[in-house]
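Mods, move this if it's the wrong board.
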Amino acid sequence: IPWRGVAVKPTGAHECSPEQKGNDCCAFAEDLNHWSTSATGAGSWTMGDGVLRFDFADDTKCGGEATARQSGEATLVLEVPGGQAWGISLAMQGRAEANYETFKLYVDGAEEVVVQATNIDGVCQVGTCDMCPVSMPDQTFSLSSGSHTLRVTADSNDALYHSGAHFAITFARTDCGGCTCSATTASTSSSTSTSSATRTTTRTSTSTTSSSSSTTSSTSSTNTTTSTTTTSAPSMCSGIEIESLFVAIQQHHEKFVAIQEHHENLFVAIQHHHALLEKRSDSAVIAYLLAAALFICLFALCAALLLLHRATQQRG
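Not the wrong board. Structure tokens:
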């Protein structure tokens, strides 16, 4: 996929304001690069710029090498500071075999979202390599102050028919307005957030080992480490705009091909009916001629019988 690994800011994105940075918008964005993931089969996770994505490897029926069921799980723990409540928005796009590949989201153990592809006439069909586009309306849920666990699962449910199948999920804070943070800003915000509340294991370790007399040195070290993580983390196009555009183009192309095939089938059907009408027309003419010939023969026979009858009467 050509755009994977290319960092692109969303259209209209702006740097987070001081107030948004104070509300941990930059720290939240950094947290989204630290999902804990696992996968079975040949599937794989990627993450970056607020997008978490699971790719199913193509199977042998669709030109790939995968031969087993594929699944994955990603977990993220978020620490919402006291006195705050975060609104989390969620958007999802992808491609999957109808009735099989399934995406689920759990918040604090409760199942919140389930998405599975369904057949679309003329576009995709279960049991084929024609994958169905999948998406869902944007959803929002609220997290109160305290610790919360997000868990995402993806499962192929079988080993067959995977061709470019994937799920891409975009997470964002509704109160952050889609703002972005530069690497330096994200590091500073992350370090500041560490002093007030523990957010990840790395931040906790840094805060614990620092002494009160070396706070400045520890903060600088934390900044450097976080900045390195930010720049080296695998990234994808922010948001889901390019993925949505790709799916829409492919949908329109497939619909165009289906319409073209429909027109060709209709043309063949018209030719077939025309041929039948010609045959029926020829048969009608033949039947008419046969009927006329039969009528003439009957008329001639009647005339002959009438003449014979008169001749017999005259002789008598």
